[in-house]
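Sequence design from tokenized structure. All designs in this work follow the same two-part layout: the structure record, then the generated sequence. An example of the structure record is given first.
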């Protein structure tokens, strides 16, 4: 089905008759302006939630991002307990999505798994990405947990945040909640280095090597069009 996230009727048609929703859609990029992100990253997410509410769909997996924490320095980073610190309008939209999903989850009983995806490139490009890289297989495992996990009692999914990361010697996230829900990553970041992998010492500053969000943290926010 082809539709527009900003058109509620399109989203409602896509959601009708399903048992769960995996929400992956977004717009992103260093040059993304706030006004260009509104339809997909803000209005679109609320449309998904409203359509789920109307259709009484009770299970949601929301693809969030490590960029909701992007402005945290890597040195001393607290990991799973870090407060929201979006690094640009893409991360801001994902942070909004998390908060909106939380509101609907608590009001309407949606079993909601927020996956803060790390670096999902096929191979690890540099030392920052190494600590938050995820393979497609491991990310798929988390999605499957969100779509199908059933448990009676305190270990059931309510509104939960997990991290889309594979195994790593020095991970940024302990990912405790994911492991409680049965996540067992199969792939190891150090075994998937790109041929042109950059260790920390060789990373230029434009890659934002000292921040969780990488390059998004060192590129200035774009000006609104009317101010250019």
């Amino acid at each position: 089905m082809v539709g527009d996230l900003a058109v509620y009727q399109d989203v409602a048609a896509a959601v009708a008759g399903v048992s769960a929703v995996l929400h992956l859609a977004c717009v992103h990029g260093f040059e993304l302006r706030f006004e260009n992100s509104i339809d997909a990253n803000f209005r679109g997410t609320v449309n998904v939630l409203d359509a789920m509410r109307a259709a009484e769909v009770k299970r949601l997996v929301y693809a969030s991002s490590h960029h909701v924490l992007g402005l945290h320095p890597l040195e001393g980073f607290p990991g799973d307990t870090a407060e929201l610190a979006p690094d640009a309008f893409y991360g801001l939209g994902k942070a909004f999505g998390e908060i909106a999903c939380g509101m609907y989850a608590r009001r309407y009983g949606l079993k909601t798994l927020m996956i803060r995806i790390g670096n999902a490139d096929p191979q690890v490009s540099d030392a920052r990405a190494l600590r938050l890289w995820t393979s497609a297989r491991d990310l798929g495992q988390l999605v499957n947990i969100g779509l199908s996990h059933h448990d009676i009692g305190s270990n059931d999914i309510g509104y939960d945040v997990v991290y889309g990361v594979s195994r790593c010697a020095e991970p940024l996230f302990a990912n405790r909640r994911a492991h409680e829900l049965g996540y067992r990553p199969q792939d190891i970041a150090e075994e998937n280095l790109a041929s042109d992998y950059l260790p920390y010492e060789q990373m230029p500053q434009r890659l934002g090597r000292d921040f969780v969000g990488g390059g998004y943290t060192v590129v200035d926010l774009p000006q609104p069009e009317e101010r250019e």
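The chain has one domain: 8-227. We note this feature because it recurs in several other targets discussed in the main text.
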